[in-house]
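DATA SHEET
Item: assembly model
Revision: 1
Owner: S.N.
Input lines:
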Amino acid sequence: MSDLLERLRGRGWRMTAQRRVVAEVLDGEHVHLTADEVHSRAVAKLPEISRATVYNTLGELVSLGEVLEVSTDKRAKRYDPNAHRPHHHLVCAQCGAIRDVHPSGNPLADLPDTERFGFTVSDVEVTYRGICPNCAAA
Amino acid sequence: MSDLLERLRGRGWRMTAQRRVVAEVLDGEHVHLTADEVHSRAVAKLPEISRATVYNTLGELVSLGEVLEVSTDKRAKRYDPNAHRPHHHLVCAQCGAIRDVHPSGNPLADLPDTERFGFTVSDVEVTYRGICPNCAAA
DNA sequence: GAACCCTCTTGGACTTAGTCCAAATCCAGC
DNA sequence: GCTGGATTTGGACTAAGTCCAAGAGGGTTC
């Protein structure tokens, strides 16, 4: 993730302790954290970091394309540090667990021109829903 | 939509003025309304209906499978009365407009067993993102 | 067609997720 | 080291939705 810090510096980011911590948290575990989870992990490393800063930094990372926002219909948005490898999500309808998956086809190709209504379509987001092995066993 | 009312009665629903109004609102315009928009349209027909009732009724319709919850990453969930014809959504990244679309392939088939991690996958939700003609012109 | 039971509705308080802002802080270039 | 302007802070605020106890009103029964 020092790569990430480099890239950010290259884009004119002023490097602060807070931003470094947020980046470290995202890099540390490749799970899909909510903003609040990022915040509490960040507080563990830098007690005086504020919620507002975490939101700011996450927002900036998203608009730079370094991190993806995922909204599987749960309450809170989640942040996915795996932005550079395109992938989709598999969500357990019961416990909310999320896994990254890599399907074979390209769903963009499945949308014929007649179904585009003049839109310039640039992106697809696919969410598979089902029951995870844990919940199925219970 | 009297069909819908029939189906609901058949499932043991007590038919009240409030529920009828919510069903009418959803049937009236085939757009994707937020709960609040449903509420304000319902108030126009039945001034004393409360927000809690609208939320309750929408939740019941969703769990009966008569209406779909759509969460394109905007703030609020939207409700899609078109639950009986499977379809996906095309969302304008700028103005948030939503259109129903019917792609050709079946994305479920694109997820190989090796990418299912033991999940019992039952559903896919596909959201295409782009810029609508209106916003592109502006 | 009156009475009753039980489901629905109400409205207001509460929760959760996130945004905003003015004042204080602190990075980076000189 | 100083300084200017970008960042951070924390607390108030907003939006969306949930919860609950009390009251209302469907529909069934006689």
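QC remark: Chain B touches chain A at residues 69, 71, 73, 77, 90, 92-93, 99, 101-105, 107-112, 115-133, 136 (CB under 8 Å).
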